[in-house]
């Protein structure tokens, strides 16, 4: 062992939180765009498009995120594409997020009462106008709690990016522990930092869900 835990180690851990947040925001933003497209495909009246989206969702949800990370990071290098760890982790998490967010949002869209669609047809609104002006604004209220809940899971899943060498919070803890070997202290701190990041979001999601349940009674 070379010394004990110092303030420099603590600063290194705190700085790595920034990269965890960068990866989380990148994956959530890109996954949200992809998820919106998946949701539109899933509720499409075109049967082939809806089924293709369903196959995509079931395929991605059936593959561990770790395998997706290996496919993007190591698989692309076989074809001569040297992908940086941040880009590889962002792409894998984007694909993973798009499947789950698309499925969450599809459920919220389909939960809207059928008379909403029928009333829009009576007003001669197109399908896209109905979605944009009537259905999606109402579905957003339903979608917000599970979306925030998924974001909490996504923040924790960024820890898997450590296996491809991306230095986020978990990887920073591994690096420090390899040098001073104080696993209970270091990974206890890492866990505490994840708790600080995730707990407020979890409480926010629970609060929104409780308000939604009360208003629906």
Automatic annotation (TrEMBL):
Q: How does it sit in the membrane?
A: Multi-pass membrane protein
Q: Name one GO cellular component term.
A: ATP-binding cassette (ABC) transporter complex
As one GO molecular function, the record gives:
transmembrane transporter activity
Q: Which CDD domains match?
A: TM_PBP2
Main location as per UniProt: membrane
Give every ABC transmembrane type-1 domain span.
17-205
- UniProt-listed Pfam families: BPD_transp_1 (PF00528)
> Which compartments is it annotated to reside in?
Cell inner membrane; Cell membrane
Family annotation (PROSITE patterns)? ABC_TM1
Keywords per UniProt: Cell membrane, Membrane, Transmembrane, Transmembrane helix, Transport
Q: Which GO terms describe its biological process?
A: amino acid transport
Please list every transmembrane segment annotated in the UniProt record, as residue ranges: 17-41, 53-75, 81-102, 142-167, 179-201
Family, as annotated: Belongs to the binding-protein-dependent transport system permease family. HisMQ subfamily.
Supply the PANTHER family for this chain. BLR6398 PROTEIN, MEMBRANE COMPONENT OF AMINO ACID ABC TRANSPORTER
The protein's name: Amino acid ABC transporter permease
Question: Which species does the entry assign this protein to?
Answer: Caballeronia pedi
């Amino acid at each position: 062992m070379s010394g004990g835990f110092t303030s420099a180690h603590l600063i290194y851990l705190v700085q790595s939180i920034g990269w965890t947040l960068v990866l989380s925001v990148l994956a959530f933003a890109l996954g949200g765009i992809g998820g919106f497209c998946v949701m539109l495909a899933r509720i499409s009246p075109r049967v082939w498009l809806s089924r293709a989206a369903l196959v995509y969702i079931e395929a991605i949800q059936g593959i561990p995120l770790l395998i997706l990370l290996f496919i993007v990071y190591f698989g692309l290098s076989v074809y001569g594409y040297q992908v940086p760890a941040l880009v590889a982790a962002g792409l894998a998490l984007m694909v993973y997020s798009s499947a789950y967010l698309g499925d969450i949002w599809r459920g919220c869209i389909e939960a809207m009462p059928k008379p909403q669609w029928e009333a829009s047809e009576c007003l001669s609104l197109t399908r896209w106008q109905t979605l944009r002006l009537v259905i999606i604004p109402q579905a957003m209220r339903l979608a917000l709690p599970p979306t925030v809940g998924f974001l909490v899971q996504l923040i924790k899943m960024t820890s898997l990016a450590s296996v491809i060498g991306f230095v986020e919070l978990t990887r920073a803890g591994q690096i420090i522990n390899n040098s001073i070997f104080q696993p209970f202290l270091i990974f206890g701190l890492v866990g505490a930092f994840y708790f600080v990041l995730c707990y407020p979001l979890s409480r926010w999601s629970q609060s929104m869900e409780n308000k939604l349940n009360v208003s629906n009674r």
